[in-house]
Amino acid sequence: MAIIKTEGVILRVMNYLETSKLVTCYTLNQGKVSLLAKGARRAKSRLGGALDLMQHVSIVYYTKETRELQTLSQAEIIHSFQHLHTDLHRLSLGLAILEFINKAETEKMANPKLFRKLIASLSSLEIAVQPELIFYQFIWHWLANSGFRPKLRHCLSCGRPLGGEKVSFSIKEGGYYCCHCRSKIENGLEISEKCVKLLLYFYDKSAVKIAEIKIPARLHSETHQLSWQYMQYYAEGLKKLKALDFLKRIEDGNRELKKGEL
Q1: How is residue 241 annotated by DSSP?
Q2: Residue 17: which region, alpha, beta or left (left: phi > 0; alpha: psi -120 to 50)?
Q3: What is the pLDDT of residues 19-65, one digit of tens each?
Q4: Distances in Å between the alpha carbon of 57 and those of 28, 87, 243?
Q5: pTM of the entire structure?
Q6: Could you report the per-residue pLDDT of 206-243, keeping only the tens digit for each?
Q7: N- to C-terminal Cα distance for the chain?
Q8: CA neighbours within 13 Å on the CB side: how many for 141?
Q9: Is the Cβ–Cβ distance between 59 and 5 less than 8 Å?
Q10: Domains (ranges, CATH) in the chain?
Q11: What's the rounded Cα separation, in Å, for the pair 200 and 260?
């Protein structure tokens, strides 16, 4: 039996028996791990307050190779991302990121780069001008890390760089065809040069920088459409995220209320 001390983010929490909790945590050094927090539901437990969803925590647990469920010994809060819990839109996006990691990542596959991106994204969600851009940036980075980064600097057919015109994006091929070559593909998604440049900006800049920008409605719509089509093609875990379904229902309801006020 070994003792592991590491940082983690709480992805999922379930009550277990009368006094305990089952916790899924994405950690810096061990990847996703499943933990048993014995007695965490007791009023005087030292663990309970640190085991809420989306907490960035320092944990100590006992691990045994023959056991899938490891025993949590200590947990202390590093950062609780409290501002996310006061804004339903930001909270839903943060929960969607957690839900996606829980679905997409396998147990005990460490990825320190992804962990640091997760922390940066949750922190930036608290302050972002357009928080959904932080969500998109996180998923595009996950796709790149998984080998699905699109080719964004040159036309897939002739190699021309971006030249100010609309392009046709091929989801299947992972790149764009310029205005001279777009007739060569069927069912391409027509997008502007600005949309391609925004994706490049996602890759080139930190989440803190993405948090500072605001894009116009038309570009936002293009980015949304391209992001969802590309993500759903390459990332199985994105096809149904409960947190995003919930957010969509809230936004649809708000739009209906606004129509009723006119």
Answers
A1: -
A2: left
A3: 999 999 999 999 999 999 999 999 888 887 899 999 999 999 999 88
A4: 11, 22, 22
A5: 0.90
A6: 999 999 999 999 999 999 899 988 988 888 666 677 77
A7: 66
A8: 25
A9: yes
A10: 2-80 (2.40.50.140), 86-261 (1.20.1440.120)
A11: 40
